[in-house]
Design brief:
The complex is a heterodimer of chains A (112) and B (113). Chain A has 112 residues and is mainly beta. Helix content of chain A is 0%, strand content 49%. Chain B is globular. In chain B, a hairpin with a 6-residue loop joins strand 9 and strand 10. Chain B is built from no helices and eleven strands. With 113 residues, chain B is mainly beta. Chain B starts with a strand and ends with a strand. In chain B, the strands form two sheets. In chain B, strands 2, 4, 5, 9, 10 and 11 form a six-stranded mixed sheet that branches. Helices cover 0% and strands 56% of the residues of chain B. The chains are: A mainly beta (112), B mainly beta (113).
Chain lengths: 112, 113
């Protein structure tokens, strides 16, 4: 039972580089989310997808784009990475909006 | 209360002690309250989702209560064990057209053997 799978686990970027964080879930969940975790802060929502075909901004969307490729996959793209985007990123999914979240293992991203 | 606030920020207890911590959240437009357990180097795992005022949930030695009118939830751990050491997160879901599950900063529990 894979659950929510995120790749990569670690990434180092230079300022201005771009990259995509991949997320896939095998639980047939409708809703998927991207959060970031910074020291001294709670988990903050970047973007979410309530259902296949929809995406919406969360609390901190600036500098990010997302794609809900299909029901299983929800990717997060940094077009031009900035040091302020150094963080731990978590993908999560749930059966529907507001049901309990199942989290991936996280991606530690450093932007130099 | 505009944000989700958790207290204390951290606490240390001895094995066998019972403990509790608090989550305060906006009571207006309340829809649901989530509790998660987050062990170091792992991902958060859901403990409870509660929606009704007066709701009580239990999972083994861990239980939670909910007061939606005054905007707080308590998490209780009975007879703490070292494996209970983790950060406990609460998150409040406010209803409406825009999804908004707001997390608190967590309570870091350390249980000393």
């Amino acid at each position: 039972n894979a659950g929510v799978t995120q790749t990569p686990k670690f990434q180092v970027l230079k300022t201005g580089q771009s990259m995509t964080l991949q997320c896939a879930q095998d639980m047939n969940h409708n809703s998927m989310y991207w959060y970031r975790q910074d020291p001294g802060m709670g988990l903050r929502l970047i973007y979410y997808s309530a259902s296949e075909g929809t995406t919406d901004k969360g609390e901190v969307p600036n500098g990010y784009n997302v794609s809900r490729l299909n029901k299983r996959e929800f990717s997060l793209r940094l077009e031009s990475a900035a040091p302020s985007q150094t963080s731990v990123y978590f993908c999560a999914s749930s059966v529907t909006i507001n049901e309990k979240l199942f989290f991936g293992s996280g991606t530690q991203l450093s932007v130099l | 209360i505009l944000n989700v606030e958790q207290s204390p920020q951290s606490l240390h207890v001895q094995e066998g002690d019972s403990t509790n911590f608090t989550c305060s959240f906006p009571s207006s437009n309340f829809y649901a309250l989530h509790w998660y357990r987050w062990e170091t180097a792992k991902s958060p795992e859901a403990l409870f989702v509660m929606t009704l005022n007066g709701d009580e949930k239990k999972k083994g030695r861990i239980s939670a209560t909910l007061n939606t009118k005054e905007g707080y939830s308590y998490l209780y751990i009975k007879g703490s064990q070292p494996e209970d050491s983790a950060t406990y997160l609460c998150a409040s879901y406010s209803g409406g057209s825009n999804y908004k599950l707001t997390f608190g900063k967590g309570t870091l529990l350390t249980v000393n053997p």
